[in-house]
Structures are given as structure tokens and as C-alpha cells.
Write a structure and sequence with these properties.
The structure holds two protein chains of two kinds. By secondary structure, chain A is α+β, with helices and mostly antiparallel strands. Chain A is 58% helix and 15% strand. The termini of chain B are close together. Classes of the chains: A alpha+beta, B mainly alpha.
């Protein structure tokens, strides 16, 4: 479950140096999904599960405080909308969220490149 | 459906989650449960089976409430660093904030009442004027203590930390209020620390903490009784 990682991910927002390996991953995943289109909580949980081959998953229901945190940080905005007779809170990325996504993507690529280099060296 | 959501809502209220957050979290979890149920129905499960699967996927509502509260607390700096935020920051911030507010209040008072005209300020030889000015300074002193205390109470409430942290911050404010003083006398405006305890000032933060505690308790009782999702 990604719940514990979520907590660390939020902590990472405060840290400026030496982020641990998985810090910021939930944030990256959620922002990445919302960069494509606006989504509601259930959709986000399902998309993460499906698109990571069920390797990663949010605890059902635990995504909401996290989304509220991102909203408080003005990285996402939300609106209540009725679709097919059902009301849902839709979340979408803001300009600040997009900037944060770029930062996290750069950081993630840097980390994965470093890990890949190390793994290749071990195999060689 | 109602049982799961009701249990979740009651537990969130018991854990001290702000009521606005409770409404929103419960509404979104209820939506989420509906989505899980619809997915189960789409998989061919009957109504009861779909509801059961949705409940199983969401897990124990009490545990979910605890998880939601942990995440909620950790989503703010004050919630993550409660010891620093409500044990250390008030120690450092109270004197600064109190003095700043006191100066602002007095400045606003003089600006409104006297228009910064020194000729209109009561002369040192006018005991009535000096008395009024002294009373104004004392009121500003009380208000500054109350505002600093309210600030920490608001932060505690907003970050959904446990009551002990609000009480800790209020106690620190109370201890400071016991010794800080502001007074106006002829030819002098004194701000500082006095070893003579000021019990009325010290009571202000504690009264505020008590009032907030009883207000929260009443709100929770009312909110708990509602059966609206």
C-alpha cells in the first residue's frame, strides 16, 4: 500500500536536500495523472493501480486528505460536478502544480538514471 | 452504506477532525464507496455482494478514520511538527507577537482618537487623561494576549492536532501573560517583564482554551447527532 509512502511524500515537500528514494512519488503520480485530465478520487486510485500494473496503490479513501493537501498547496483545484446523476469532486492541475510536476519529474529522472547506472555496473 | 459512513463520520468527529473537513471527507469517501459498489455491480455481483465488496475494499471504518486523521495532520506543518509548533514556537513567538500587536493597537487607537496630534494627547499634568490612556493601554494589553492565544488555538484547530497541543500553547501564553506588562504613566510608556504576577492577564489564555474546548464539545455533540451524509 502507498499510504505510508504518501506520508513521506508530503514530508518531502518540506525538505530541500537529500530526499529519500521514494519521497515525492505519490505526489508525482497524482500530479502526472491530473496533468492529463481532471479526475475524481476513485479514478485516480484506479488509474494508479492499473497503470503501475498494480505494483502501487493508494489505500482506498486515503487519497482524499492527500488531495486536500495538494489543494491547500494550490497545486490542484477542485470543483463539484454532477455527472450522470452523481455528484463528484473533480480535481485538476494548476500552474503551480504543473511547475511542481516538472521539478518532481526532473528529480525522478535523475534518481532513476543513477540507480540504472549502478545496476548496469553490477551486471557488467 | 449508512452504517459504514456513519461510523466513519462519528469516529472522525471523536478524533477532533474539523467539522468542515468531516463533511468533505465523508462526502468523498461515500462517493468513493458508491464507485466501488458500481464497479462490483459491473463485475456481475448482486447488490448485497457489491456493497460487501465495497466495504471490504474500504476496510474498517474506524481504521480508515484513523488513517484519514493521520494524513490530515501530516498535511500541514503544524500537524507534522506539533512539539515545535505548539511547544517551542509559542515560547519564541509570544513576546514578539504580543509586542507587535500592542504597538499596532495603540497606534490604531492614537490614530483614531487623537490623529497623531501631540497637542491633543493628554498632558502629564492631566490625571483624568492619563488614567484614560492607561486604561486604553491595559485594554490593548489584554487584547494582544487574547489575539496571540487565539492564533495558536486557530492553528491547532486547523491542523487537527489533539487538544493537548492547544492546551500546551495556551499554558505557555498564560505563563507569559502572568509576567509581561504594559503601562502608561506620566512621561513614560513601559513595556516589559514584571515579577509581580498578573493573574487577570494569565487567566485570559486559559479562559479562551476552556471556551474553545466547550464550544468544540458542543459542536461535536450536535454534529454527532446529525444523520446527514
Amino acid at each position: 500500500m502507498l499510504t505510508t509512502i504518501t506520508v513521506k511524500g508530503m514530508m518531502a515537500a518540506m525538505k530541500k536536500t537529500n530526499p529519500s528514494f521514494l519521497n515525492g512519488v505519490p505526489e508525482l503520480l497524482v500530479l502526472r495523472l491530473l496533468a492529463r485530465r481532471e479526475m475524481y478520487g476513485y479514478q485516480i486510485v484506479e488509474e494508479i493501480r492499473a497503470q503501475t500494473g498494480e505494483a502501487l496503490s493508494f489505500g482506498e479513501g486515503c487519497i482524499y486528505p492527500y488531495l486536500h493537501y495538494l489543494e491547500a498547496e494550490k497545486q490542484v483545484s477542485s470543483r463539484r460536478q454532477e455527472v450522470e446523476g452523481r455528484n463528484r469532486n473533480y480535481y485538476k492541475l494548476t500552474a503551480r502544480g504543473r511547475k511542481r510536476l516538472d521539478e518532481l519529474t526532473t528529480e525522478w529522472k535523475r534518481v532513476t538514471t543513477g540507480v540504472a547506472l549502478l545496476m548496469e555496473e553490477e551486471h557488467a | 452504506m449508512r452504517d459504514f459512513i456513519e461510523t466513519l463520520r462519528r469516529r472522525l468527529v471523536e478524533l477532533g477532525c474539523p467539522t468542515s473537513q468531516v463533511r468533505r471527507l465523508v462526502r468523498e469517501v461515500a462517493d468513493h464507496r458508491e464507485d466501488l459498489k458500481h464497479a462490483a455491480l459491473a463485475d456481475g455481483l448482486p447488490e448485497v455482494g457489491a456493497e460487501t465488496r465495497a466495504d471490504v475494499q474500504l476496510g474498517d471504518p474506524l481504521a480508515l478514520a484513523e488513517q484519514l486523521m493521520v494524513t490530515l495532520r501530516r498535511s500541514s506543518w503544524w500537524g507534522r511538527h506539533s512539539v515545535i509548533g505548539f511547544g517551542v514556537v509559542p515560547l519564541l513567538a509570544f513576546p514578539v507577537l504580543w509586542l507587535l500587536l500592542l504597538i499596532l493597537e495603540l497606534a490604531a487607537g492614537f490614530a483614531l482618537g487623537y490623529g497623531w496630534d501631540p497637542k491633543k494627547l493628554p498632558a502629564a499634568g492631566n490625571p483624568v487623561g492619563i488614567h484614560h490612556l492607561g486604561m486604553a493601554a491595559l485594554c490593548a494589553h489584554y487584547i494582544a494576549i487574547a489575539l496571540v492565544t487565539l492564533l495558536f488555538c486557530w492553528l491547532a484547530r486547523r491542523s487537527a492536532v489533539s487538544l493537548k497541543w492547544m492546551v500546551t500553547a495556551c499554558t505557555i501564553c498564560s505563563v507569559y501573560a502572568l509576567f509581561v506588562q504594559a503601562s502608561i504613566k506620566p512621561h513614560s510608556f513601559a513595556v516589559g517583564v514584571s515579577w509581580t504576577p498578573h493573574w487577570i492577564e494569565a487567566a485570559i489564555p486559559l479562559l479562551i482554551a476552556s471556551a474553545i474546548y466547550f464550544f468544540q464539545r458542543r459542536t461535536r455533540q450536535r454534529f454527532r447527532e446529525k444523520v446527514v451524509v
